[in-house]
Amino acid sequence: MTQQQLSPESVPRADGMPMLGLGTWQNTDADQCADSVRTALEAGYRHVDTAQAYDNEVSVGKGLAAADVDRDDVFLATKIWTSNLAYDDVLHTARESLNRLGVESVDLLYVHWPAEEYDAEDTLAAFAELYDDGLIDNVGVSNFTPDQLREAVDVCDAPVFANQVEMHPLLPQDELREAADDLGVNLVAYSPLARGEVFDVPEIEEVAEKHDASPAQVSLAWLREKGVTAIPKATSEAHIRDNWGSLALDLDAEDVETIDGIDERQRQVDPGFAPW
Known about the structure:
This protein is of the alpha/beta class and 276 residues long. The chain has ten helices and ten strands.
């Protein structure tokens, strides 16, 4: 398969979620954000990720509306920020997010972090209500530890669909992947390129050279081999299309073993309120 032959229908899916999406963190230039969303959708992407805290839901919605792609074909996700996680605040600000995005519902709504106003029973009860009311198709959590994920699955009256966490070849999240698999929860990887740190890792460069691929494509293909959905941030058309090309790359067992053997460990996102 060549990149030119890739179509939206060729993207692997995890329980209906396209396993490659466009991340929009730090994409705060309104016009650029809208244009990157439109560009990605018209290139074939069918999964877009944003958040209240990114301050770009309006722009994401404009890009979605501008693209020559049916809304029903796009898997759209956003996240509730930590200060809005009390029961009533979840219900109120979720609707505000829908208004900013210009949509009647989202495919996935996440608890952005288990911090500040987060209370498992209170917060997730509101998420379950949004699910029952048809305003969200799936409940998600983000940055949850294995124990917090187990608690969320236990207390939420709606299925917990996904846990979005930092994951890449320098942070393979083995324990969390095992817990998510046991619980039937999908993993979604943010910062899947470790903010560019994977580009200079010898093992990744070796595999990239073998396949005449970019290090970004190798890292994204490795995540897919692990059954993990990746949402790399990209603003330029070149990067959007390079990441899209990862779908044409099939790693063999030797490649995966080479990347699994990387000793270096880095976490790029580590705020003071993180639960680990």
